């Protein structure tokens, strides 16, 4: 009985090309957390704050829960070829 050996090949998730088994590949995790630079103005009154919170509540109720969640927190894992890794690092000014 012969055993069949299966080699996994992966695709780069940016350029979509198969990464040959002779090349290294890179696994990454992208994690984006929303921040805000919107501060309540010093002149805000309790009524204005209550009105802003009410408007925010209405907006949240109308929003798609999945989309809203991803606007606040998004995590994705991906696999890259060496060329796309280098381009990503350059694009993010990490080289
Ligand atoms: Zn690539």
Overview of the structural elements:
There is one protein chain. With 95 residues, the protein is α+β, with helices and mostly antiparallel strands. It has one domain. Helices cover 37% and strands 21% of the residues. It is built from three helices and four strands, in the order βββααβα. Strands 1-2 form a two-stranded antiparallel sheet. Strands 3-4 form a two-stranded antiparallel sheet. Strand 1 (10-11) and strand 2 (18-19) form a beta hairpin. The longest helix has 17 residues, at 46-62. The N and C termini lie far apart (51 Å). The mean pLDDT is 88.
Spans of at least 5 consecutive residues whose pLDDT stays below 50 are none
General shape: elongated
H/E topology pattern: EEEHHEH
Rg, Å, rounded? 23 Å
Q: Kindly report the oligomeric state of this protein.
A: single chain
Strand order of the largest sheet: 1-2
Q: Compute the number of strand runs.
A: 4
Bound molecule types: zinc ion
Strand percentage: 15-25%
Structural classification: alpha+beta
What's the average pLDDT?
A: 88
Q: Tell me about the largest β-sheet.
A: 2 strands, antiparallel
Q: Helicity range of the residues?
A: 25-40%
Give the count of structural domains: 1
User: How many helices in DSSP terms?
Assistant: 3
What is the end-to-end distance? 51 Å
In short:
By secondary structure, this protein is an alpha+beta fold. It has helices at 46-62, 65-72, 82-91, and strands at 10-11, 18-19, 26-33, 73-80. It contains 3 helices and 4 strands, in the order E-E-E-H-H-E-H.
């Amino acid at each position: 009985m012969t055993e069949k050996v299966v080699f996994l090949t992966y695709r780069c998730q940016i350029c979509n090309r198969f990464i040959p088994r002779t090349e290294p590949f890179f696994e990454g995790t992208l994690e984006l957390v929303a921040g805000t630079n919107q501060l309540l103005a010093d002149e805000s009154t309790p009524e204005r704050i209550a009105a802003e919170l009410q408007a925010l509540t209405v907006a949240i109720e109308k929003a798609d829960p999945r989309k809203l969640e991803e606007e606040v927190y998004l995590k994705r894992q991906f696999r890259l070829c060496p060329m796309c890794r280098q381009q990503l690092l350059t694009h993010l000014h990490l080289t």
